[in-house]
Amino acid sequence: MPESDTNAPLDPQWVERLAQARALKKWPLGKLVSLFENRLPENAALRSQIQHHIARHPGDYAKPAAILGFTGTPGAGKSSLLAELCRYLLAQDDQLKIAVLAIDPSSQASGGSILGDRTRMHYGRREPRLFFRSQASNLELGGVTEATFHACRILRHLFDYIFIETVGIGQNEIDIQNMTDYTFLVMQPLGGDQIQFMKCGIMEIPDAFIVNKCDEEKLARSSYHMLRSSLKQARLVALRAEDDFQQAARDNIFLTSATRHKGIDILGQHILSLQPPQRWQHAERFYLKKTIQRRYGEFGLHLIAPMDTPELMQQPQLSYEEKELRLRQAVVEHVKGAQIT
Ligand SMILES: Nc1nc2c(ncn2[C@@H]2O[C@H](COP(=O)(O)OP(=O)(O)O)[C@@H](O)[C@H]2O)c(=O)[nH]1
Ligand SMILES: [Mg+2]
Predict the structure, then answer these.
(1) Do 155 and 125 meet the contact criterion of CB atoms below 8 Å apart?
(2) For the chain, what are the domain ranges?
(3) What is the number of the ligand closest to the CA of 102?
(4) Residue-wise over 244-259: b if at least 16 C-beta within 10 A, else e?
(5) Which atom of ligand 1 is nearest to the CA of 165?
């Protein structure tokens, strides 16, 4: 794949498709996301051209999206809560656009996602400013989060927020945190087990805690006090001195009920007030290295270590594909030049 291809002008058909995706037409959006998600080698030049096209027309695209991860045990109410949250946010600003990526535990037998359709139902079908996609977790070469990352590469130029829903157990969540600007841990009331999770290092410290299913205020209050005292004990996060239920949000603790629409406004306002995202370069670097590791193992990582520098990793004029190509070339050239002594 010569760089004359990766930087060639974009085919007019794809220019048109990009314009339609910007207008949030679902079919071209789906096509574009698949193009990035599937990562077919024969489409690498096209993906690169799309990135260069976007970079050449910054005025046409939104500023890159904030990427927010929602993680937690199955049944905690992540999907229900996200649907409510999206409704709230879209109602606050009629220009706002949101993409939701839901990573489904998928059935080995069918190879398909089992929650996708059920989750999709939460959102209704008529909201044009919301794009929903579920990603099956067992189809992926190199871990589900690679597909999520590659989908975000294009979605971040088209939306203001990307929400990623994952089940909070295992390596995927740690990987997800390498691409999210903020992580929210969604819990059920009165269960202290998530603190244990974090202590074991299964996930890194989330930026905020949400106790969902707080349908009654009494339950919200007791959940708040319980979570706060566990957090205090675990000394994982800095908390304010006062233990004040009304000010829970100041400690990044949110008490919500998706079914009774409680606490959604406070959480929504918190999300709207978050600082602009800054993690993307970190995410690119993490996934570039992950690709090299998957292809060439620790040996490959060792070989590219001298290239793991801002000069290569942060060059905005290079597309992701071009960066990956340079790293892979470095590995291959080293192997070709190696002498047996
Ligand atoms: N009582 C109550 N039930 C809820 C709430 N949010 C979600 N649920 C229910 O909890 C179950 C799991 O919700 P879901 O959103 O699919 O959880 P997820 O697996 O974390 O995505 C569903 O039956 C929801 O209706 C809530 O705030 N209160
Ligand atoms: Mg769900």
Answers:
(1) no
(2) 1-57, 66-272, 280-341
(3) 2
(4) eeeebeebbbbbbbbe
(5) 21
E strands, the chain, in order: 66-72, 98-104, 130-136, 161-167, 182-187, 208-211, 253-255
Cα dist. 128→92, 97, 152 in Å?
Answer: 15, 9, 19
The CA 215 to ligand 2 mean position distance, Å, reads 19
Span 95-105, mean pLDDT? Answer: 89
The pTM (predicted TM-score) of the whole model is 0.92
Domain 66-272 fold: Rossmann fold (3.40.50)
Distance between Cα 197 and ligand 2 center (Å): 19
Q: What share of the chain is helix, strand, coil (3-state, %, to 5)?
A: 50, 15, 35
pLDDT digits over 325-340, tens only?
Answer: 999 999 988 888 776 6
Q: Which of 70, 71, 79, 80 to mutate to test the pocket of ligand 1 (most atoms within 8 A of CB)?
A: 80
